[in-house]
Amino acid sequence: MFSPLRHGAYRHLFTAQVAALLGTGMATVALGLLAHDLAGASAGQILGAALAIKMVAYIGVAPFASALAARLPRKTLLVSLDLVRAGVAASLPFVAEPWQVYALMTVLYVASAAFTPAFQAMIPDLLPDETEYTKALSLSRLAADLESVASPVLAALLLAVMSYSNLFAGTAVGFVVSALFVVSAVLPALSTARPRPFLQRLTGGLRLFALTPRLRGLLAISLATAAGGAMVFVNTVVLVQSRFAMSEQATAWALAAFGGGSMTAAVVLPRLLVRVSDRTAMALGAGVMTLVLLSGPWVAVSYPALLMLWVVMGFGYSLTITPAGRALRRSSNAADRPALFAAQFALSHACWLIAYPVAGMVSAEVDPGAAFLVLAGLCATGTVLALVIWPAHDPENLPHRHDDLGADDPHLAEGHGAAGVHAHPFVIDERHRRWPTTKE
Fold first, then answer.
1. What is the CATH number of domain 3-187+199-389?
2. Predicted pLDDT of residue 302
3. pTM of the full predicted structure?
4. Cα–Cα distance measured from residue 434 to residue 438, given in angstroms and rounded to the nearest whole number
5. Which one, 68, 131, 167, 425, has the greatest CB density within 10 A?
6. What is the pLDDT of residue 245?
7. Residue 320's closest CA among 218, 179, 409?
């Protein structure tokens, strides 16, 4: 599982990711506590609004940032965005009003919307081997899950000796360390090929989603992922500190339980994905989250029961999110990959834009039990849609015809079949403008 770390550039980027995630994890805990400090039992409403701003920024910025950054120096771009995020984090301890939270979070999320797709799209270029890339995806998921465990645990320990506002300083340090490791990495050079027109770079990823069945199924899975995750990220502080009347440290430990379950799934996934398809693993995870949400109103009646639920929720969450990179890679060539990752980033966060306000508003206006059930319906909808849209039989090599090509065209030499039909790893591109039907 750890063999990708032998690659120097990936090792530096992975370390940068870990540093940024640790800082971000502490900010997540501190932001929830800040919201509770400002609004008490209505903290979910503030968190839901702040996280909805995040989703709007991600949806609106990521495709444009990817298109504009196609010709920018990768290292300069990533380091600059890390420093912007560090500056925002350093300002958060001085927040006293909800509108200030919203303003600073907008800047932070815009920078993250530009950073994350560019970062993700480089990994397939660094690790072209499918097996190594799968391991790298699991390592990235494991890093995120370790953050979900380590950051809340570290936050719980620090909260014993300092106020939550000081946790934001740890976020700033994390981004600075991330920038330093990006500076030290030898990143793949930008292509010298002539760039595609801006509009094509802007919309190319969305076109791939529209024309590729597995990507449409992946989007449905993203809706299920968002429903389960929103319940955890928005309402943990409400359940722990308002319903159970427990401490800030208890909130941090509850988030760590979710991370522990997610980390467990990340560890077992490389072996699991040898035996089952990405579709099966992701649908299984979405089903697990749906069951957790359905049982929430009757099971989450005590703090220990909530911890148990969050462990299971974390396991299902990781099953849905980790294989996504494999599906994206299978569905694009190298030239289209940055646009596709940006489109996935924006579209998946459109799902969070639905789930976050639902989680916050239903919890504030009714109660967290109602939020469990409403989000269960959303999660089940995503799961069923994914199973319907994403074909169960989804081979990499697809037979198809090229009636517009001459018989001597070099492309037809690959995977010849009868009557001019040939087969090869199929993606939508300039030569393949529609998905082949079963008759082809």
1. 1.20.1250.20
2. 94
3. 0.73
4. 13
5. 167
6. 87
7. 218
